[in-house]
Amino acid sequence: MQERKGNRKYDKQFKEEAVRLATEGVRPVSEVARSLGIHENLLHTWKRKHTEDPEGSFPGKGHLKPQDEEFRKLQKENASLKEDREILKKALAIFSKHPR
């Protein structure tokens, strides 16, 4: 049974090394991609991502870039605060109906 190339996963170290080889300028991107056994377009995509965000590129499966992780955390906190507010509104309505 033959493995499809599109299903392979590459770790951060492999991607960074591939980008380094492609950006050194010694060999063309197409030759670097061919020698690594990947498609040239994939290597161009990795290069673009690395150029846009050198530190946050290739965070890995299940991991987010630091700014995305912070955004997710703030979204969860916001949802929790909204829920707390709704609970307090209901409690206030209940206690305001029954005078002591």
Keywords:
Arc Repressor Mutant, subunit A, 100 residues, mainly alpha, 2 domains
Count of extended strands: 0
Low-confidence stretches at least 5 residues in length (pLDDT < 50)? none
Query: Any idea of the CATH class of the largest domain?
Result: Mainly Alpha
| Mean of all residue-level pLDDT scores | 82
The computed structural class is mainly alpha
> C-alpha Rg, in Å?
25 Å
- Beta content: under 5%
Q: Tell me the CATH topology of the largest domain.
A: Arc Repressor Mutant, subunit A
Q: How would you sum up the major sheet?
A: none
Distance between the termini: 77 Å
The helix/strand series, from N terminus to C terminus, equals HHHH
Helicity level, as a percent range? 55-70%
Shape: rod-shaped
Explain what you see.
Helix 1 runs antiparallel to helix 2, helix 1 packs across helix 3 and helix 2 packs across helix 3. The N and C termini lie far apart (77 Å). The mean pLDDT is 82. The chain is 65% helix and 0% strand. 9% of the residues are buried. The chain has two domains: 55 residues, Orthogonal Bundle (Arc Repressor Mutant, subunit A), CATH 1.10.10; 37 residues. The protein is mostly helical. It has four helices and no strands.
